[in-house]
């Protein structure tokens, strides 16, 4: 696909500004300036530094010989055998017929299942569940169907206790318990219901995130679904595999903002499209470089660039090519895109993106930002009217994002019975049923499924609870997270009464898949000393993360807290920092 063929015609949204409400006056503000250290003149770079480090060879991009000194082990695995061949040349068929013993007896095939299969969305759980895989899908904008949900339920059901599904912090499905011999048939089954797991792991573009209320929200700025769908189709070549972007230096996240609520969390993405007009044209300002890692976490910064809606794909292509061509491939902790931006300077990086645009031009950022900076973030739980007259959506709480096969079948039934057969996943690991006839909402609320775990009216602390996989399934996690998050929250709720939303995130290790730095209170798994001096499970506690237009990352509040000591500490933080009231005092006041 050539650059010139990527521009697509989008009509401007019918309503670019929100409806007027007393507390929500529209603010048109200039782009926030990038931090001083990032806007400084880029260092003087040798011309050789701007030479692309990869070259096209036999249909795949490969690191040039001259740039292979000091590369990390994952780069060596990619050089030894192109991971995408497992899919594009059907190498998975042969691999799936081998026993685990055969696979482990050869270095190359062992690397296939532990590294290269991640390009197909398959993650071997060698440490805790040898021979079992987690499979991550691509679900742009978090939109899925009842048929897709039933199919995924049918896959995990056969794996018994190991089979389950998680809603992820990128509006996506992950299914667990998969065994290698089943993979070819699962891939065919996914394709039959319009799903793919391709290019969802390792050094690839992750699931494009958008507004979970896209197309149904009366207050939306723009429907993000066309953009996120196009991005996903482009990046995966319509689920056939796109080698142009399968050899990035590291993973890469993208989102398209469609709401003043910023449900999409733009500040933690490598590329965020922020809706803005310019000279009467609708398009997007661009934020770049947001990421989390064990050694460094950074918020995205303005690129001082704006693209019309028609150029969403060419811009994405140009940014990815600049990162692919110029990003370093040494220490994995220093290969995310922000490190390249630091090295080149914002203007230097912008220049590299600009020269990769179809016409070699990239407009400067617009001052006509459409996101209302004073917007009060809305709660999507419960019943809410859609922009379509006579229809409503219902937000359901999924405790820490975990579902079993029967849960998924029941969600599919409810979507078919009361809605249009569609479900929406959110980055907070919850689910929305859209397109419910308003006359049927009361009947839906009376369904037993909604009376138990999957409530449309969860408690305040449960609403904002997010947890990564934890050490039940993930070999990198230091502590168990999902069950512990629920248990600690339940115990804290017995001690204090909270009157305003407080978001609590749990992550099992410093990779911070649970995004603890954006939470009001975050828990990062670690080992600490027990009373007898021996190592026990603990957590570093973060406080002060914020999402929305005034977003910023939380900071360490207390390090190395034993998990057995977390309940009183959390209760104390809630009282001191968030205005919670001890239950005993509340009862006395009553």
From TrEMBL:
GO terms for biological process: nitrate assimilation. Residues 29-44 have a biased composition (Low complexity). Pathway: Nitrogen metabolism; nitrate reduction (assimilation). It is an enzyme of class 1 (oxidoreductase). Its cofactor is siroheme; [4Fe-4S] cluster. Keywords: 4Fe-4S, Heme, Iron, Iron-sulfur, Metal-binding, Nitrate assimilation, Oxidoreductase. One of its GO terms (molecular function) is ferredoxin-nitrite reductase activity. The keyword Oxidoreductase applies. Residues 130-192, 384-447 form the Nitrite/Sulfite reductase ferredoxin-like domain. Residues 202-359, 465-574 form the Nitrite/sulphite reductase 4Fe-4S domain. Belongs to the nitrite and sulfite reductase 4Fe-4S domain family. This is Ferredoxin--nitrite reductase, chloroplastic. It comes from Microthlaspi erraticum.
């Amino acid at each position: 696909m050539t650059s010139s063929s990527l521009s697509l015609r989008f009509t401007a949204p019918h309503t670019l500004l929100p409806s007027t409400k007393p507390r929500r006056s529209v603010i048109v503000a200039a782009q926030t300036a990038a931090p001083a250290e990032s806007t400084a003149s880029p260092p003087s770079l040798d011309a050789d530094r701007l030479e692309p480090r990869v070259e096209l060879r036999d249909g795949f991009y490969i690191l040039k010989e001259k740039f292979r000194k000091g590369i990390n082990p994952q780069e060596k695995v990619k050089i030894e055998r192109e991971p995408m061949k497992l899919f594009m040349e059907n190498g998975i068929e042969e691999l799936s017929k081998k026993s685990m013993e055969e696979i482990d007896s050869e270095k190359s095939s062992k690397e296939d299942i532990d590294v290269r299969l991640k390009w197909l969305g398959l993650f071997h759980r060698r440490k805790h569940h040898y021979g079992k895989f987690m499979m991550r899908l691509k679900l742009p904008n978090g939109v899925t169907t009842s048929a897709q949900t039933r199919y995924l339920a049918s896959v995990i059901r056969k794996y018994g206790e190991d089979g389950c599904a998680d809603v992820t912090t990128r509006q996506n499905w992950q299914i667990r318990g998969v065994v290698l011999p089943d993979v070819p048939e699962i891939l065919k089954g996914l394709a039959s219901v319009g799903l793919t797991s391709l290019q969802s792991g390792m050094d690839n573009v992750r699931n494009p995130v958008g507004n979970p209320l896209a197309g149904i929200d009366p207050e939306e700025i723009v429907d993000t679904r066309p953009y996120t769908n196009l991005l996903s189709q482009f990046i995966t070549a319509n689920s056939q595999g796109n080698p142009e972007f399968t050899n990035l230096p590291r993973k890469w996240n993208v989102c398209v903002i469609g709401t003043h609520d910023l449900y999409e969390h733009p500040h933690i993405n490598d590329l965020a499209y922020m809706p803005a007009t310019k000279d009467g044209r609708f398009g997007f300002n661009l934020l770049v470089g947001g990421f989390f890692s064990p050694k460094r976490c950074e918020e995205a910064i303005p690129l001082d660039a704006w693209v019309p809606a028609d150029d969403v794909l060419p811009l994405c292509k140009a940014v990815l090519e600049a990162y692919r061509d110029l990003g370093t491939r040494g220490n994995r902790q220093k290969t995310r895109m922000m490190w390249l931006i630091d090295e080149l300077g914002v203007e230097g990086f912008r220049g590299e993106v600009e020269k990769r645009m179809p016409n070699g031009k990239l407009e400067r950022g617009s001052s006509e930002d459409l996101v209302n900076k004073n917007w009060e973030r809305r709660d999507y739980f419960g019943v809410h009217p859609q922009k379509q007259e006579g229809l409503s959506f219902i937000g359901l709480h999924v405790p820490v994002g975990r579902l079993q096969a029967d849960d998924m079948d029941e969600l599919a039934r409810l979507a078919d019975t009361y809605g249009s057969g569609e479900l929406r996943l959110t980055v907070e690991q919850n689910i929305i049923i859209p397109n419910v006839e308003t006359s049927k909402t009361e009947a839906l609320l009376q369904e037993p499924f909604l009376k138990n775990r999957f409530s449309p009216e969860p408690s305040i602390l449960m609403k904002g609870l997010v947890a990564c996989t934890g050490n039940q399934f993930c070999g990198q996690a230091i502590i168990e997270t999902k069950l512990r998050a629920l248990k600690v929250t339940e115990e804290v709720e017995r001690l204090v009464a909270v009157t305003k939303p407080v978001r609590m995130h749990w992550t099992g290790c410093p990779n911070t898949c649970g995004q603890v730095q954006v939470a009001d209170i975050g828990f990062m798994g670690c080992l600490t000393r027990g009373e007898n001096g021996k190592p026990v499970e603990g957590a570093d506690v973060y406080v002060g993360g914020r999402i929305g237009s005034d977003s910023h990352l939380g900071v360490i509040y207390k390090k190395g807290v034993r998990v057995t000591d977390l309940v009183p500490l959390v209760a104390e933080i809630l009282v001191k920092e968030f205005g919670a009231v001890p239950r005993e005092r509340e009862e006395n006041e009553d």
